[in-house]
Specification:
Elements (H helix, E strand, L loop, with lengths): L5 H9 L3 E5 L2 E5 L7 H8 L3 H8 L1 E3 L5 E3 L2 H8 L3 H14 L13
Helix pairs in contact: 2-3, 3-4
Length: 107
């Protein structure tokens, strides 16, 4: 019997971007389901740095959001693999998912 995941439904319904802090800055990335298919595949294939370069935003001192670009890519490339794994797990948790789980999964 499949267990219904209400948390996933709530996160999928809002599509809120995920915000986190790192290197003394506040970052924002889109909801997982808002990534393009190629970006989702790249993230799943371990190419998170490239995905972050394309989608991450960083908050400026005045509260404005701007594309992080290479700054986000460097943040990932300079992190340890286990730190990147924790980041991905938290991003997925924001979307109501766990690593290795497809959005189409019933559990």
């Amino acid at each position: 019997m499949a267990l219904f995941n209400w948390d996933a439904v709530q996160h999928e319904a809002t599509d809120d971007p995920w915000e986190f802090t790192a290197a003394g800055k506040t970052w924002r990335v889109p909801h997982i389901k808002d990534l393009k298919v190629g970006q989702q595949m790249s993230a799943d294939s371990g190419h998170l740095a490239e995905v972050m370069r394309d989608v991450a935003e960083v908050q400026g001192k005045n509260g404005e959001w701007r594309k992080a670009g290479v700054l986000a890519q460097r943040m990932i490339l300079n992190a340890h693999a286990d730190q990147v794994g924790v980041l991905v797990a938290a991003w997925l948790a924001h979307a109501g998912m766990v690593p290795g789980e497809s959005p189409a999964s019933s559990h």
